[in-house]
Design a protein that fits this description.
alpha/beta; 5 helices; about 220 residues; binds glutamine; Rossmann fold; two-stranded antiparallel ribbon; single chain; globular; PRibForGlyAmidine_synth_PurQ; 9-stranded mixed β-sheet
């Protein structure tokens, strides 16, 4: 069994959707982690879910990054353990500098709620090993500040290091540089993505393209019975 922890900030709104996937679909122990908690040593995988932490004041994720629990998340990541940030969670991870770059206001200055085709760029990571390289999947997107940005040197570095995990395929919905939808850290244990795999994890709700991200991870870390 793999124990999942899902961070909850004031304003998180995808926390229960993620728990539905890890606890109810994948049958793994899952606990909600309030942002003021400071002991997460029992957890194998931390999920920072989507939402509007602290009302998106200042910038999305800019306040959540200072929550007490984030010190522990940084230590968890430094030990090589798994952390995924989805949408607002991705924004929190870039604010915390656990991932390179930043998420800024969408090119067209509107909140976008849509479904977006994505190309799987890497399949050598535990997160994505259940996909095939170059596979096109479709996941929901829902964000106002999802345009991936990095300075030229950082962008070159992450491309050279193969840290882009998913790219928007076809139309670029938000103006992200190099069509970037997801990046990982150098070692691959920390992943951030704007699309929502948890909203595409139950075929009954229209798509299970996102489920392979969670089930692939479990498979890789030897927990799927
Ligand atoms: N779904 C989300 O997590 C949204 C993230 C953030 N509130 C934004 O609008 O960009």
């Amino acid at each position: 069994m793999t124990k999942f922890g899902i961070l909850v900030f004031p304003g998180s709104n995808c926390d229960r959707d993620v728990a539905y996937v890890t606890r109810d679909i994948l049958k793994q122990p899952t606990r909600m982690v309030w942002h003021q908690d400071t002991d997460i040593s029992d957890l194998d995988v931390i999920i920072i879910p989507g939402g509007f932490s602290y009302g998106d004041y200042l910038r999305c994720g800019a306040i959540a990054r200072f929550s007490p629990v984030m010190q522990q998340v940084m230590q968890h990541a430094q030990k090589g353990k798994f952390v995924i940030g989805i949408c607002n969670g991705f924004q929190v991870l870039t604010e915390a500098k656990l991932l390179p770059g930043a998420l800024v206001r969408n090119r067209d200055l509107h909140f976008i709620c849509d479904r977006s085709p994505l190309k799987v760029e890497r399949t050598d990571l535990p997160w994505t090993q259940a996909y095939t390289k170059g596979e096109i999947i479709t996941l929901p997107i829902a964000h106002g500040e999802g345009r991936y940005h990095a300075d030229a040197a950082t962008l070159a570095e992450i491309e050279d290091n193969n840290q882009v995990v998913f790219r928007y395929e076809g139309e670029n919905p938000n103006g992200s540089l190099n069509n970037i939808a997801a990046v990982c850290n150098y070692t691959g244990n920390v992943l951030g993505m704007m699309p929502h795999p948890e909203r595409a994890s139950d075929a009954m709700l229209g798509s299970s393209d996102g489920l392979k991200l969670f089930s692939g991870l479990l498979d890789k870390i030897g927990a799927l019975v």
